[in-house]
Design goal:
- There is one protein chain.
- With 578 residues, the chain is α+β, with helices and mostly antiparallel strands.
- The protein contains seven helices and 31 strands.
- The protein has helices at 124-131, 436-464, 466-487, 492-511, 520-529, 534-549, 557-577; strands at 2-6, 14-19, 23-25, 30-36, 41-44, 51-66, 69-82, 86-90, 94-97, 100-103, 107-112, 132-138, 149-157, 162-170, 177-182, 190-194, 197-211, 215-219, 223-235, 241-251, 255-259, 276-284, 288-289, 295-305, 321-323, 327-335, 338-351, 355-359, 363-368, 373-378, 382-386.
- The strands form nine sheets. The protein has a five-stranded antiparallel β-sheet with strand order 1-2-4-7-6, with no helix packed on it.
- Helix 6 (534-549) packs antiparallel against helix 7.
- The longest helix has 29 residues, at 436-464.
- It is flat.
- The two termini are 60 Å apart.
């Protein structure tokens, strides 16, 4: 929390008060800092009424030069213990800067009852707990059976910290749900809010669920192990704030879904479990054809809902029509709002006799969760007119009844579309000996002789290239000792530990000595004795220095990649010179 008086003058002097929190328990401690951007004299603190001074003032000064501009900061810090509950005020403090008096603004502090976990200073873990949240956002917690709901897992990160890496500890199992995962191609940080405070968040996982059981169902939590960098109040030599890395395990927590059963009142007899909003149709590719020709009949449901979780109604066709098993087709895409598209059964029908054959109307029923009602759609009756073909003497009437299954007489012309007299010719006799292929195989060894001579000359040329072989050998050696560091790119601590160990192991293998026991000056002297040039020597020592600095200062991924490339180059140069 910050509150202060900013001077809008030529010297741009700032003098402000900062408190660690504006609400605390009576058994907690409060940190109060008076911060200025220019050095001053005659500082007069407030009387801190309602508080007991435990420590202070402690002075901290930070000064740095960045792009030719000097940056200066001085802070006076107090640690206070509240003495009574209620509202206390940190009154104005004064300081003289450049012959002028500057005052900080007063700040009200609310003091409540004692808390279970008092702390004067938040630890790194406390900051991480307050700044990192994994949330499972459920679109609907009281759906109907087979109604789609979506679950989106978001990781909220406070602007005060940064996340360097994360990986899931366990993935939730969606028992009693039909699930469809929507992949997240590349997580992207976006601005948002969490409990009214500004946060950044990233979507980690998206999934669509269709409950298959009514009652209370639990969604297991998703857990992550997250590596985060938390800023401290310490600064390095250059005035940059020092970060501390810690690992935290966050969980989205269990979510309970109360699934409602589908109503029994008004449920159609042909209801097969379809829930959503649909259209239904029965169509044929043609209605006029000759006997032994084929046509396609399609039973199709389209719309939005559980398209993959119900059975399509079956056609009821006359027995005089030869019907093959239907082919199922599916064109469905799933988004966070559920599945949408179409599914269909395609029937192949071949009439055997002349006449008119009706395709009776069939019905499809579904439950619409928006209106909470059942709907039934009836298809239109379709008449198939077979114009030419043999007469079915066993049938009575031009339109056979679909309910009376009749025997089908097989005529001699039923399979007249099949060619019974194909135009086939005998395959001639072909002998291998004396053929063109025989002479080609015989001459193949003669063709391989010049190829073998060229291959031998190429190998000899490579073996004679001493300088080139040394360069290749040096590069392989560099990759060998830096392989562990390369795997740790992106993880600062692990990368620089592996890099430093790789550099020492290289000298150990090359010079047969334990360089880890030597100082950097001793290693530089040893490389100079081995006639390693100054530039390569300085590059090797510089890498060792970076490995040491990485323990105390933040290093970016770009810096790590540059150090890795530099290490490969330096090892290669040293190997060639040694």
């Amino acid at each position: 929390m910050t509150c202060g008086l900013w001077a809008q003058e030529e010297d741009a002097v700032t003098f402000e008060v900062q408190v660690s929190k504006d609400k605390l328990g009576i058994n907690e401690r409060l940190r109060v800092e008076f911060v200025m951007n220019k050095d001053g004299d005659n500082f007069t603190p407030p009387d801190f009424e309602g508080f007991r001074v435990l420590m202070g003032p402690s002075t901290q000064i930070s000064s740095s030069w960045i792009n030719g501009v000097r940056s200066y900061s001085k802070s006076l810090t107090y640690f206070l213990q509240p003495t009574v509950q209620g509202t206390a005020t940190i009154k104005q403090a004064t300081i003289e800067i450049g012959g002028k008096i500057y005052k900080s603004t007063a700040k009200k502090i609310t003091i409540g009852p004692a808390v279970d976990k008092p702390s004067s200073e938040k630890t790194v873990d406390d900051v991480a707990d307050e700044s990192l949240h994994l949330v499972a956002e459920v679109s609907k917690t009281n759906p109907y059976l087979n109604e789609a709901i979506s679950v989106v897992y978001k990781l909220y990160v406070s602007p005060n910290i940064s996340v360097s890496n994360y990986h899931p500890l366990d993935n939730p199992k969606y028992n009693n749900f039909w699930s469809h995962d929507i992949p997240v191609s590349r997580p992207t940080a976006e601005n948002g809010s969490y409990k009214g405070k500004p946060y950044r968040y990233v979507v980690l996982k998206r999934i669509v669920l269709y409950p298959q059981k009514s009652g209370k169902l639990e969604i297991e939590p998703l857990s992550l192990e997250v590596s985060i960098d938390v800023p401290t109040n310490k600064r390095d030599f250059f005035g940059q704030r020092i970060f501390t890395q810690t690992n935290k395990i966050v969980s989205a927590g269990k979510r309970t879904i109360d699934v409602k059963s589908l109503p029994t009142a008004g449920r159609p007899a042909d209801f097969s479990g379809a829930v959503g909003s649909f259209d239904f149709s029965v169509t044929t590719s043609k209605t006029n054809l000759n006997a032994t020709e084929s046509l396609q009949a399609r039973v199709q449901v389209s719309g939005k809902g559980n398209l993959k979780l119900f059975k399509l109604p079956e056609l009821n066709l006359p027995s005089s029509l030869e019907v093959y098993e239907p082919e199922f087709e599916e064109n469905v895409r799933t988004t966070l709002s559920g599945s949408q598209g179409k599914v269909s059964d395609n029937y192949t029908i071949v009439p055997s006799f002349k006449g008119k054959y009706p395709v009776p109307s069939i019905s499809f029923s579904y439950f619409d969760p928006k209106t909470e009602k059942y709907n039934t759609i009836n298809s239109k009756e379709i008449v198939i007119d077979v114009i030419q073909g043999p007469n079915n003497t066993a049938s009575s009437g031009s339109i056979p009844s679909s309910g009376n299954r009749q025997s089908v007489e097989v005529t001699g012309n039923l399979f007249n579309f099949i060619k019974l007299k194909p135009n086939l010719s005998a395959i001639g006799t072909d002998y291998f000996f004396g053929s063109t292929r025989f002479f080609l195989w015989m001459s193949l060894p003669l063709l391989l002789i010049p190829i073998a001579i060229l291959f031998r000359k190429k190998r000899k040329a490579i073996a004679d290239d001493v300088a080139g072989n040394k360069i290749k050998k040096a590069n392989r050696l560099a990759r060998k000792y830096l392989s562990t560091a390369k795997k740790a790119l992106g993880n600062k601590d692990a990368f620089y530990v592996a890099l430093e160990k790789g550099l020492h192991n290289y000298l150990k293998a090359k010079l047969k000595i334990e360089t880890s026991e030597f100082s950097k000056d001793k290693i530089a002297s040893l490389l100079a004795q081995k006639q390693v040039d100054d530039a390569t020597n300085e590059g090797f020592i510089g890498l060792l220095k970076n490995c040491e600095m990485a323990r105390y200062s933040p290093f970016s991924d770009v810096q790590m990649q540059q150090d890795y490339n530099k290490a490969s180059e330096v090892i290669s140069q040293i190997d060639k010179q040694l």
